[in-house]
């Protein structure tokens, strides 16, 4: 039996036995179009208040076209969360490319700056979607897997910052890299959340406060110490 082989009919698509095949670039563009539309809707109205009908209307595509790429809202949410938190993880990699690698406060300052940049870039504040992803992860196992994997990776970047600081002698050798990294990540996520809820945080002032010795004050500053 003869094997079907693709033949080029024009410069835009391939045909298999006379049937046109849609280019991968077109499929990827359509998928991105749906994700962009859904991201804007979810950022504005939340995951639970946004239905597939809203996404379909915002995308400008037919229902059949949207469901061709995403069979359910949960599947679409997982794709959006993977994109948003995945971009965050990629941006955190710059911490390890700095020479020298910043100290913990400097690493947090860099990360906070990234959060502020993402929040102010483009028509959609992606940090709104990131926060919603936290809640969605508590009920949706697929989203939980994505969020867990990504935030562990981000925390891993901070662990490496601590370890390199220990190698350079700028961080005490007996400091626990895992727990210090967890504290650093908490400072970044705390900024993200307070910025959305309270709206009164300045990134520079916030990160400057991290250098105030409130975590381990000197004995001279301890209340009740001898004068």
UniProtKB/TrEMBL annotation:
A Pfam cross-reference name: TetR_C_6
Q: Which Gene3D superfamilies would you find in this protein's record?
A: Tetracycline Repressor, domain 2
Spell out the protein name for this chain: Transcriptional regulator, TetR family
Check the record and name the PROSITE patterns matching this protein: HTH_TETR_2 (PS50977)
* Molecular function GO terms recorded: DNA-binding transcription factor activity; transcription cis-regulatory region binding
Where does the HTH tetR-type domain start and stop, copy by copy? 28-88
Q: Which UniProt keywords are present, listed alphabetically?
A: DNA-binding, Repressor, Transcription, Transcription regulation
Q: Which residues bind DNA?
A: 51-70
Q: Which domain of life is it from?
A: Bacteria
């Amino acid at each position: 039996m003869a094997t079907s082989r693709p033949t080029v009919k024009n410069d835009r698509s391939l045909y298999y036995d006379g049937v046109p095949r849609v280019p991968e670039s077109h499929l990827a563009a359509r998928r991105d179009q749906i994700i962009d539309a859904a991201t804007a809707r979810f950022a504005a109205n939340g995951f639970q208040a946004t239905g597939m009908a809203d996404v379909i209307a915002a995308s400008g595509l037919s229902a059949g076209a949207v469901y061709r790429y995403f069979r359910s809202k949960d599947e679409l949410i997982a794709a959006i969360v993977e994109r948003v938190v995945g971009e965050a993880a990629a941006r955190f990699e710059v911490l390890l490319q700095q020479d020298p690698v910043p100290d913990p406060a400097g690493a947090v300052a860099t990360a906070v700056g990234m959060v502020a940049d993402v929040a102010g870039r483009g028509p959609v504040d992606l940090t709104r979607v990131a926060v919603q992803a936290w809640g969605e992860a508590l009920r949706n196992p697929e989203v939980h897997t994505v969020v867990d994997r990504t935030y562990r990776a981000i925390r891993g970047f901070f662990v490496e910052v601590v370890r390199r600081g220990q190698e350079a002698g700028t961080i005490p050798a007996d400091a626990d890299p895992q727990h210090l990294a967890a504290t650093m990540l908490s400072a970044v996520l705390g900024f993200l959340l307070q910025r959305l809820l309270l709206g009164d945080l300045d990134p520079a002032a916030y990160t400057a406060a991290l250098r105030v010795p409130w975590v381990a004050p000197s004995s001279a500053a301890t209340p009740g110490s001898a004068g």
